[in-house]
Amino acid sequence: MRENIRGKAWVFANDVDTDVIIPARYLVTDNPEELGAHCMEGIDPDFSSTFTRGDIIVAGENFGCGSSREHAPVALMGAGCACVIAASFARIFYRNSINVGLPIFEAPDAARSISRGDEIEIRSSEGRIINTTTGESWNFPPFPDFLQDLIESGGLIPWVRSELEGRG
Amino acid sequence: MPRTLASAIIASRTRQKAVEGEICRVRVDFAFANDITAPPAVRSFRKMGAKKVFDPARCAILPDHFTPNKDIASAEQAKTAREFALEQGMLYWEQGRVGIEHAFLPEKGLILPGEVVTGADSHTCTGGTLGAFATGMGSTDLAAVWALGETWLRVPETIRIVFEGRRPPWISGKDLILEVLRRIGVQGARYRALEFGGPAVKDLPLDDRFTVANMAVETGAKTGLFVPDETSLAYASARAARPFAPVYPDSGAGYVETHEIDVGGLQPLVALPHIPSNVRPAAECGKDPIHQVFIGSCTNGRLRDLEQAALLLKGRQVHPSVRCIVIPASPEIFRAALERDFITAFTDAGAVVCTPTCGPCLGGHMGVLAGGERCVSTSNRNFKGRMGHPGSEVILAGPLVAAASALKGRITDPREILSEEEFQPLEVASDA
Ligand code: SF4
């Protein structure tokens, strides 16, 4: 099970696309730190200099829409993003995040209520998001069983490894 | 239970029930990556402890994004991709023989009706044109498919789009899908599939259908499917690299939504910055000057698109302050455009013609925008900074609007250049 997460919220609107999370011109590497240095610069040029390792991204609907680049969740992790809470995620971004180990939480009410700078705590095992600044809290639904297995086995890479071992 | 096309295809490739919403383990027929997404896939493949791809004839790498290599870093990526492909004996084509993946693979008969196809590229949904459940994913997901020959898919609910009426020759597939985006928005089909049908599809050239399916992902959809018909089956049969069995939806299948679009009532459309659903009639958007026009990409770099552009550009001159860049999406299309003298028409008009590549579509090379520049592009995304500087603007349009805009130096409805009769040559479907 994932550990609890605590961090300061950065809030973004709907439809944050992968070209904004990491522009294509930087896709000549898949090194997390190099990608992280340019993360979100399309929306906020100062992002990488002011975002602090352990901070949390909170966004509206359809976070991560656009290209299939796995570099998007990797760039967020490289920038030190602890997790993303959104009203909803674009489907490829959702898969990619699970695969590369970026924690994501689909929680529309939390996503709409949290303000920039709020201190947020996520208690994964309880399925709870707590805004320690305002005292509000919300539940988020568990992942479907199959994805829960995938997450618990450490992501897609270890999962495939054990599948391959099973096949001999 | 009557099935939609999406659920019927998944059901044919899984041992599970494949009811909507269920996550299924699904057998994959074909899996590919490009020069950007292959290198991370290769690294994930190795970390998985995999030694061999599940079937080298069903796995491919296409160097199409930053190629011919734009700089040293992209050359290194292309090299990683190539060396893995050669090591594995997978399908691989060098520049000069490769095209943009979503145009090239159907041409090679590698995406076929009834199949499940996964690509490490979001516009893999283009393969839905032929009735394949074709869907984009990330590099690690793709590596898992290469290793196992299967993936997991949540069986999506389906939105049905019904195209009605008679399509005038100045209306193309791009206008159809922009109208869909105008109506349902960029997340109208998130986690869902689109199924396109209706009487206007019969006379919609295959190249226009590719454009429609290509932008299904812009609505958030997993894939955008056309039901196989005579046109698509003839194309697939003539090219098929392996046997295939088309799959059809059941009558009485349940759709979460149905949208009817009268194509006879459409005007040439554009999507203004910075989101593909910001759709307006081209005729209303011609106030400000533009600096570049790009005709190409996996959306609109096919022969029918070039034919449309040539109809306008032939014998005319690109506006003096506009760079017009034309990029055929594959060598086969390039050759056909040469034979039909489209290439001469473009160069005589003052346009640049480049070798098949994604190039400017993703702000890669061969047409990157400076701050403040505005580009009318036949590609599929106009996100902030998509084609270069974050302060540049991309306006999405079909090839007729793009070519008309190149001539006028501002966003232009093609009927401003040609009378309605002069569009007659486009009445004849010419999909190669
Ligand atoms: S042409 Fe553009 S959208 Fe299509 S695959 Fe290439 S980069 Fe992606």
Overall average residue pLDDT of chain A: 93
* Percentage of residues in strands of chain B: 15-25%
Shape descriptor of chain A? globular
- CATH homology superfamily name of chain A: Aconitase, domain 4
Rg of chain B over CA atoms, rounded to whole Å, is 20 Å
Largest interface, with counts of residues having CB < 8 Å to the other chain, equals: A-B, 45 and 52 residues
SSE string of chain A: EHHHEHEHEHEEEHH
| CATH level 1 class label of the largest domain in chain B | Alpha Beta
Give an overview in words:
The complex is a heterodimer of chains A (168) and B (432). Chain A is of the alpha/beta class. Helices cover 34% and strands 17% of the residues of chain A. In chain A, strands 4-3-2-1-5-6-7 form a seven-stranded mixed beta sheet. In chain A, α4 (71-78) links the parallel β2 and β3 (84-86). The model of chain A has no long low-confidence stretch (mean pLDDT 93). Chain B folds into two domains: 5-261, Aconitase, domain 3 (2-Layer Sandwich); 270-427, Aconitase, domain 3 (2-Layer Sandwich). Chain B has helices at residues 5-11, 38-47, 72-88, 101-107, 139-148, 173-184, 206-214, 230-239, 297-300, 303-313, 331-339, 342-349, 399-408; strands at residues 23-27, 30-34, 59-62, 91-92, 116-119, 133-136, 150-154, 158-164, 193-197, 224-226, 257-262, 269-271, 279-281, 292-295, 323-326, 352-353, 374-377, 393-397. Chain B has a seven-stranded mixed beta sheet, sandwiched between helices. In chain B, α2 (38-47) packs across α5. The interface between A and B is large, with 45 and 52 residues. Iron/sulfur cluster is lined by residues 65, 100, 102, 121, 123, 297-298, 358, 361-362, 379-380 of chain B.
